């Protein structure tokens, strides 16, 4: 028991000694008091509620008794003293506590160093599950806050004991001993009573005595799971299917749950294959929770190969409903293409027959065989007839094979199609597209591993790496997790806050820039995996909100043990991830961890996370040297201290452990459909952890590669859709894993996109047309799918039928039939036969059709006609369809005089047939209207003669009422010459496709009425002489397509309308290319004009103003250029009387045209003022004037020029400049700045300063007039000039260059000119650089520089020079990293070393002459000054031979600076070339001099000889 509990019990014992008599006499009464105290305790609990913040979520308030709470109000340090009692026993006495001692939340190690914060480990929302414990109200419970606080302050929870030493007499001692013995006996009795009354001594957690066993049963049987559970209080038992709670009350027809005398069972009735699952049984009471698992496998009788999980199963009988459900999926979605950010819907119509009231099938959607769950990205809907899947905001993660599975009680059917998701357009050309499939793994309290998949398109250059961003759920702030891009598609994110939820995204980087971010990951909570597992268990183990302790906790205050199994889970050149198991001995307060590393070859262990211990048993280490080896170990810590280290991991070398995959094998491309190709390839041989493959295609003759899939696929076969029909493609494949992309495979052979030829589909509708004694006439319907090639013929098989016994199939014809009918001869009368048909094309023979009904060979005697044949449809649209048929082969007693067409929705029963029309239709076609779009229909036709109506034909359909995408209708065109024609266009023409026109769905025999012209995908049917004979329905069918057709019905009213249009085209209205418009000309003259499309030379114009014809004269001037079609009218000026409407009326033979312009009101008055202004401007320009007024410009040399253009000047025109109203004369210095060239005046201010501000004026004047131009170069105008100057300077700046010096690295940029007011800022990693002694910026001449003295690794990164250009600024960026950093830093170190070497190089600094002449016999003493650091080595040479100090030569080197040589009694032999050699590690230098020894006597004799 903890120290705090001991203190509480001692206080209770003191109180019991005072009331021991009352305890004996009122035993039961005391029990009542205990209950009252317990009730009082609960009241105190409510008053002392504390609130703790959970790392996972905020728990509700929990209580703790006032007495227990006060026991924890202690200081962090207390003194212990030992006092001896009378019996010699030592009692520990604690120093008294201060009244207002604060609780500490700091955890310390054994050296009293703060290592972190203690966080309560027990947190939960108690109110959520409080109802579970209603039957256990009498159980004494300790609040959860009590437990948390006890673990939090276990080192401080010591209650002071006041021990008093009193000297007692022997009688007193004996009396007290007797009292103690009596009290001990009373307390023993009381303990026994409490033990009996305390239910906590009887409770124990649930335990499975008998566990449920897994079973395998046949479909349709009943299975029962049994288990026996012991535990007190009585556990509650719940059953789960695949972790989903089973609600037996909601499904009594399926499940029955029983619980009797701790025996529990789950009965599953009428098992089907959907009941195959893992069943969990969970047992729970206040003491704990236990669970067990059993698997149920439901088998079915089936022959042949076992199908896959999504393969259609044969339908079986459903005994529950007494029927066999048949499922048909129609209106299927096709292969779909979407783009990121769009919304896509997929849907199918599902028909389940028969229809059972209140029964609906189960509809499940899959992506790549994985069931989809509704989310913010995925929405499903089942209307009872149509299943729809909506993909909101498409991303590449949504690409894949989508499958609709319809489950019924008789089995299931499926349908699948692929969905491709193309990348959204990139914002910057050349950047990569977004990564995909961002996932979180191995989440812990402050750590998670983020993985992703590389995109299919890298952009204009290879991907350099990725940036990982995180965002706390509930906020919109994204923070970048890594400073430098990571190449590996897996990254550990650290520094998470425990209990908070995060989402992540990834961006790719290449030389062109950064991609858009990927789709965000699913939210992940930073929490302990064990807590996450407990929370995921959900209802199987609900949190009770309370913890019970009945024994002492021996782990409180104990230093945790050693972690175990420390391993390196991931190792790349960027980081290393460690993982370990927590220690067994760690207490209830939780532990944290320190990580230590040791470099290989040393015995020194360094603590990696010195600032704060980590909470998760995972840690990522960065900034390790690539190629070096390290060892790692882990220590645990808690409030009691730091534990012993774990075992070392052994030496781990830093580097990538995963290599790039090898290139896949050469792909093989084969034809598939008109828009798809199947690509096969050999898997990469050398690859680990394969993510998948990307397939790319390129049109032959180009070098543009396009991705076929934007989500990697793992299989080695892929169908590339969305290709252009008839185009030649080549393909290549590349593999990808977390390390990156492999090399692309070699290109496949070129393949043309065309539909692959296959055998045709089955023929349908084998029926009997006529029967005689020994032969029968058969007919059938051609296959809907001809396999991509024309049907070459048919083969008919027959067999006899006797009762229920059928014979073997025999061939009837050995040569292929070219028609869809056949006369089966040499049959036996009154014998029943069955027939089947096979179709043949160039690829082979199809499968046999379904056998016909049993047909008896006997002569027909019926009077009604037979069934019509050859039913087919044309012109299928959303609300209509045209049904065509052929007459029956057997007319009956009288000829056929009409037909009836019946229709039914495909999903309806036989009672759903209804007639399309009431009266018999004599035509062999009918257009059915009023259909529901998206609904499927079936049809049949009945023939009629005078005897009655015959049997219906074979059913046609189901036909989906849906307009084919891209379908075009026949339209009527009337050209400029009045020619009427019908036009039909088709964009899906194939080789051999033709346009076939018909009238009233019959081949056209009279070709004189129409002229057909076909051009590529367009056909024109021209009416040669439109008349009432052409009335009818004209249709056009495109052969060798999927039924592309259209029709146009020409009625009498329509023909009349077309003839009127034709007449208008033959005699058209004169078209205007430009309606009448007005413009002002020089002198304020007004021009009205228009232009006609075309006209003849006979065209005439009538000019009208306010309904009055006007003619050419003084006020009006007209002109009509018939070659250009331009009509003009000029007016010298606008007067008040000219307000009104101007009109041009044109007549060209029978054609007429009119155009008008209204000038009234404010519009007219504004035009009149503008005309007067233009006239005044013209007057001004008659004399000298300014063509362009005075304005400024800044040259590339940063000179400011004031310019203006003048016109109409003469030599005598005076031009005067002034500044601030002071004329600039020829004597002024500013006169040199004025120049004139080709009508342009320039004032060259040069390099502008504030003294150049002012008002500049230019005057022009001669005898014709004068003009003036002013420019105010002050205030805002002056600042505008400066901003333009700054812009020119900023744009003239060169790219940043790097220069290394002996002091550091210099980044500089040159400009044309630098102004003193120009603002230049430098940034490092987008942060402004503060000036310091080490980093300085400045300007020298035309050079802007940043000097970094003594650079370090921290100085690496992106540098930005921001030059103010008057607006946003011009930025020059230089990335000082990689090779640039290495070269610059290496050059700096070289120059620095050279400078140091030059400063410290050994050299002779003086003291030695060049030549010494000395008389023989004298002594020579020379001293040379020497310098060098370190002190150089000194030696002397004579004639290149080193001298040794002896009696003759005395060599000295004193104080490291002075080297001397003394030659005693020189002789002529001492003459020669001497040198003082100095040498240290930085260099060598020699101080040379010449010694010449002469003899005076010899010199005299030489002189005498000369004389």
Walk me through the structure:
This protein has 1507 residues and is mainly beta. Helices cover 12% and strands 41% of the residues. It is built from 12 helices and 106 strands. Strand 12 (277-285) and strand 13 (288-299) form a beta hairpin. The model is unreliable at 1-164, 303-309 and 538-555 (pLDDT under 50).
Helix residue percentage:
10-25%
Instruction: Give the structural class.
Output: mainly beta
Characterize the quaternary organization of these chains.
single chain
Cα-atom radius of gyration? 52 Å
- Termini gap: 130 Å
Output the number of helix runs: 12
* Residue windows where pLDDT falls under 50 for at least 5 positions: 1-164, 303-309, 538-555
Total beta strands:
106
The main pleated sheet reads as: 6 strands, antiparallel
Question: What is the strand content?
Answer: 35-45%
The chain-level mean pLDDT equals 81
General form: extended
Give the secondary structure arrangement, pairings included.
Layout: H1 3-18, H2 20-25, H3 27-47, H4 66-70, E1 80-84, E2 90-94, E3 106-108, E4 114-117, H5 144-152, H6 170-197, E5 204-210, E6 215-218, E7 223-232, E8 236-241, E9 244-245, E10 255-260, E11 263-268, E12 277-285, E13 288-299, E14 317-318, E15 323-324, E16 326-330, E17 336-339, E18 344-353, E19 362-367, E20 370-371, E21 378-382, E22 386-391, E23 400-408, E24 411-422, E25 436-441, E26 447-453, E27 465-472, E28 478-480, E29 490-494, E30 501-510, E31 513-514, E32 524-525, H7 529-536, E33 564-571, E34 575-581, E35 592-599, E36 606-607, E37 618-622, E38 629-638, E39 641-642, E40 652-653, E41 668-673, E42 676-680, E43 690-699, E44 706-707, E45 717-720, E46 728-737, E47 740-741, E48 751-752, E49 764-771, E50 776-781, E51 793-802, E52 805-806, E53 810-811, E54 821-824, E55 832-841, E56 844-845, E57 855-856, E58 869-874, E59 881-886, E60 898-905, E61 914-915, E62 925-928, E63 936-945, E64 948-952, E65 956-960, E66 971-974, E67 980-985, E68 995-999, E69 1002-1003, E70 1010-1015, E71 1018-1023, E72 1032-1038, E73 1045-1050, ...
Parallel strand pairs: 6-13, 17-24, 99-106
Antiparallel strand pairs: 1-2, 3-4, 5-7, 7-11, 8-9, 8-12, 10-11, 12-13, 14-15, 16-18, 18-22, 19-20, 19-23, 21-22, 23-24, 25-26, 26-29, 27-28, 27-30, 30-31, 30-32, 33-34, 34-37, 35-36, 35-38, 38-39, 38-40, 41-42, 42-45, 43-44, 43-46, 46-47, 46-48, 49-50, 50-54, 51-52, 51-53, 51-55, 55-56, 55-57, ...
């Amino acid at each position: 028991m903890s120290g705090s509990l001991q203190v509480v019990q001692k206080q209770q014992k003191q109180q019991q000694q005072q009331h021991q008599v009352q305890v004996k006499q009122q035993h039961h009464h005391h029990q009542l008091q205990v209950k009252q105290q317990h009730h009082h305790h609960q009241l105190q609990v409510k008053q002392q509620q504390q609130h703790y913040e959970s790392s996972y979520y905020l728990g509700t308030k929990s209580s703790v008794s006032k007495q227990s709470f006060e026991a924890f109000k202690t200081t962090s340090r207390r003194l212990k003293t030992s006092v001896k009692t009378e019996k010699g026993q030592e009692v520990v006495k604690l120093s008294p506590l201060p009244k207002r001692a604060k609780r500490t939340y700091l955890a310390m190690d054994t050296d009293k160093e703060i290592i972190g914060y203690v966080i309560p480990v027990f947190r939960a929302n108690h109110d959520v599950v409080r109802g579970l414990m209603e039957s256990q109200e009498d159980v004494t419970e300790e609040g959860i806050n009590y437990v948390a606080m006890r673990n939090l302050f276990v080192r401080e929870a010591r209650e002071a004991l006041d021990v008093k030493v009193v000297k007692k007499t022997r009688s007193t001692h004996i009396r007290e001993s007797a009292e103690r013995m009596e009290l001990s006996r009373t307390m023993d009795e009381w303990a026994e009573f409490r033990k009996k009354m305390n239910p906590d001594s009887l409770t124990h957690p649930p335990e499975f005595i008998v566990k449920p066993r897994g079973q395998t049963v046949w479909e349709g049987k009943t299975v029962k799971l049994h288990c026996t559970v012991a535990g007190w209080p009585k556990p509650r038992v719940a059953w789960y299917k695949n972790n989903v709670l089973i609600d037996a009350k909601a499904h009594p027809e399926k499940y029955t749950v029983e619980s009797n005398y701790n025996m529990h069972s789950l009965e599953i009735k009428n098992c089907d294959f959907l009941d195959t699952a893992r069943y969990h049984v969970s047992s729970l009471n206040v003491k704990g929770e236990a669970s067990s698992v059993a698997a149920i496998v439901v088998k079915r009788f089936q022959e042949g190969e076992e199908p896959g999980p999504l393969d259609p199963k044969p339908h079986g009988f459903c005994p529950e409903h007494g029927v066999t459900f048949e499922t048909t999926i129609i209106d299927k979605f096709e292969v779909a293409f979407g783009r990121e950010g769009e919304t896509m819907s997929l849907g199918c119509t599902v028909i389940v027959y028969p229809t059972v009231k209140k029964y609906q099938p189960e509809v499940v959607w899959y992506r790549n065989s994985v069931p989809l769950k509704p989310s913010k990205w995925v929405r499903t809907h089942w209307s009872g007839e149509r299943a729809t899947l909506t993909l909101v905001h498409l991303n590449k993660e949504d690409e894949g094979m989508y499958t609709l599975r319809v489950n019924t009680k008789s089995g299931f059917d499926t349908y699948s199609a692929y969905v491709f998701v193309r990348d959204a357009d990139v914002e910057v050309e050349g950047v990569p597209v977004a990564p995909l499939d961002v996932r979180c793994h191995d989440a812990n309290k402050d750590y998670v591993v983020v993985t992703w998949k590389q995109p299919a398109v890298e952009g204009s250059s290879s991907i350099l790496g990725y940036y990982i961003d995180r965002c706390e759920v509930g906020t919109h702030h994204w923070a970048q997790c890594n400073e430098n891009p990571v190449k590996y598609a897996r990254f550990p994110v650290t520094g998470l806050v425990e209990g908070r939820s995060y989402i992540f995204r990834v961006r790719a980087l290449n030389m062109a820039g950064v991609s858009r971010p990927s789709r965000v990951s699913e939210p992940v909570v930073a929490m302990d995996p064990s807590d996450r597992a407990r929370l995921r268990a959900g209802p199987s183990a609900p949190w009770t909100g309370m913890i019970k302790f009945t024994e002492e906790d021996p782990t409180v205050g104990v230093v945790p043990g050693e972690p175990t199994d420390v391993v390196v889970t991931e190792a790349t050149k960027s980081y290393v991830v460690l993982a370990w198991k927590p220690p067994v001995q760690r207490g209830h307060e939780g532990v944290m961890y320190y990580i230590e590393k040791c470099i290989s070859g040393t015995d020194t262990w360094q603590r990696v996370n010195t600032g704060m211990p980590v909470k998760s048993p995972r840690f990522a280490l960065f900034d390790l040297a690539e190629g070096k080896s390290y060892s790692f170990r882990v220590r645990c810590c808690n409030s009691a201290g730091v534990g012993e280290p774990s075992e070392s991991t052994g030496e781990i070398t830093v580097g990538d452990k995963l290599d790039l995959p090898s290139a896949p094998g050469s792909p093989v491309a084969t034809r598939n459909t008109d828009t798809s190709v199947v690509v096969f390839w050999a898997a990469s041989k050398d690859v680990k952890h394969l993510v998948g493959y990307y397939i790319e295609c390129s049109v032959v003759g180009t070098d543009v590669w396009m991705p076929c899939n934007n989500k990697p696929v793992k299989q080695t076969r892929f169908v590339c859709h969305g290709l252009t029909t008839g185009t030649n493609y080549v393909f290549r494949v590349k593999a990808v894993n977390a390390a990156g992309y492999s090399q692309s495979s070699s290109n496949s052979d070129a393949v043309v996109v065309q539909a692959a030829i296959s055998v045709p589909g089955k023929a349908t509708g084998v029926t009997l047309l006529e029967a005689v004694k020994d032969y029968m006439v058969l007919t059938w319907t051609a296959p809907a799918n001809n396999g991509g090639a024309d049907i070459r013929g048919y083969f008919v098989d027959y067999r006899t039928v006797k009762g229920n016994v059928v014979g073997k199939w025999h061939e009837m014809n050995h040569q292929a039939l070219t028609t869809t009918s056949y006369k089966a001869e040499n049959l036996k009368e009154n014998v029943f036969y069955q027939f089947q048909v096979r179709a043949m094309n160039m690829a082979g023979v199809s499968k046999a059709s379904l056998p016909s009904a049993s047909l008896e060979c006997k002569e027909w005697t019926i009077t009604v006609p037979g069934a019509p044949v050859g039913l087919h449809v044309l012109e299928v649209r959303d609300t209509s369809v045209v049904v065509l048929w052929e007459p029956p082969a057997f007319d009956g007693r009288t000829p056929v005089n009409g037909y009836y067409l019946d229709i039914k929705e495909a999903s309806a029963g036989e009672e759903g047939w209804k007639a399309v029309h009431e009266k018999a239709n004599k035509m062999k076609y009918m257009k059915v209207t009023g259909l529901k779009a998206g609904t499927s229909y079936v049809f049949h036709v009945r023939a009629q003669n005078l005897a009655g109506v015959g049997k219906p034909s074979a059913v046609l359909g189901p036909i989906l009422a849906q307009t084919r995408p891209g379908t075009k209708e026949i339209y009527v065109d009337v050209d400029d010459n009045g020619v009427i024609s019908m036009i039909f266009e088709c964009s899906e023409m194939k080789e051999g496709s033709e346009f076939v026109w018909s009238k009233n769905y019959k081949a056209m025999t009279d070709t004189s009425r129409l002229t057909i012209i076909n051009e590529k995908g367009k056909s024109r049917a021209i009416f040669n002489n439109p008349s009432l004979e052409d009335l009818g329905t004209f249709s056009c069918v495109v052969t060798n397509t999927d039924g592309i057709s259209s029709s146009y019905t020409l009625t009498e009213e329509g023909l009349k309308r077309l003839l009127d249009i034709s007449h208008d085209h033959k005699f058209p209205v004169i078209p205007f290319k430009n309606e009448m418009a007005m413009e002002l000309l020089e002198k304020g003259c007004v021009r009205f004009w228009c232009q006609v499309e075309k006209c003849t030379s006979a065209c005439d114009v009538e000019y009208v103003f306010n309904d009055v014809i006007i003619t050419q004269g003084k006020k009006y001037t007209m002109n009509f250029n018939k070659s250009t079609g331009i009509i003009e009218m000029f007016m010298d000026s606008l007067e008040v009387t000219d307000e009104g409407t101007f009109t041009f009326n044109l007549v060209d033979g029978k054609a007429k045209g009119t155009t008008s312009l209204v000038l009234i009101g404010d519009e007219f008055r504004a035009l009149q003022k503008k005309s007067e202004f233009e006239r005044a401007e013209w007057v001004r320009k008659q004399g000298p004037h300014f063509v362009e007024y005075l304005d400024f410009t800044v040259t590339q040399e940063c000179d400011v020029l004031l310019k203006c253009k003048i016109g109409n000047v003469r030599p005598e025109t005076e031009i005067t400049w002034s500044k601030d109203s002071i004329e600039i004369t020829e004597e002024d210095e500013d006169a040199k700045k004025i120049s004139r060239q080709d009508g342009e005046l320039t004032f060259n201010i040069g390099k502008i300063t504030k003294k150049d501000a002012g008002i500049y004026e230019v005057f022009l004047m001669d005898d014709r007039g004068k003009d003036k131009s002013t420019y105010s170069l002050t205030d805002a105008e002056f600042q505008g000039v400066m901003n333009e100057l700054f812009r020119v300077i900023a744009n003239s700046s060169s790219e940043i260059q790097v220069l290394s010096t002996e002091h550091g690295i210099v980044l500089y940029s040159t400009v044309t000119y630098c102004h003193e007011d120009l603002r230049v800022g430098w940034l490092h990693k987008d942060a402004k650089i503060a000036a310091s002694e080490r980093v300085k910026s400045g300007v020298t001449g035309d050079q802007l520089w940043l000097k970094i003295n003594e650079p370090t690794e921290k100085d690496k990164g992106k540098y930005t020079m921001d030059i103010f250009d008057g607006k946003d600024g011009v930025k020059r960026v230089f990335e000082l990293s990689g090779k640039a950093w290495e070269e610059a830093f290496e050059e700096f170190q070289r120059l620095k070393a050279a400078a140091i070497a030059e400063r410290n190089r050994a050299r002779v600094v003086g003291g030695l002459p060049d030549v010494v002449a000395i008389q023989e016999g004298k002594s020579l003493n020379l001293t040379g000054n020497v310098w060098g650091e370190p002190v150089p080595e000194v030696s002397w040479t004579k004639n290149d031979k080193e001298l040794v100090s002896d009696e003759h030569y005395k060599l000295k080197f004193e104080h490291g600076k002075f080297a001397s040589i003394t030659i005693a009694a020189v002789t002529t032999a001492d003459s020669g070339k001497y040198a003082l050699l100095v040498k240290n590690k930085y260099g060598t230098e020699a101080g040379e001099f010449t010694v010449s020894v002469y003899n005076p006597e010899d010199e005299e004799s030489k002189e005498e000889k000369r004389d």
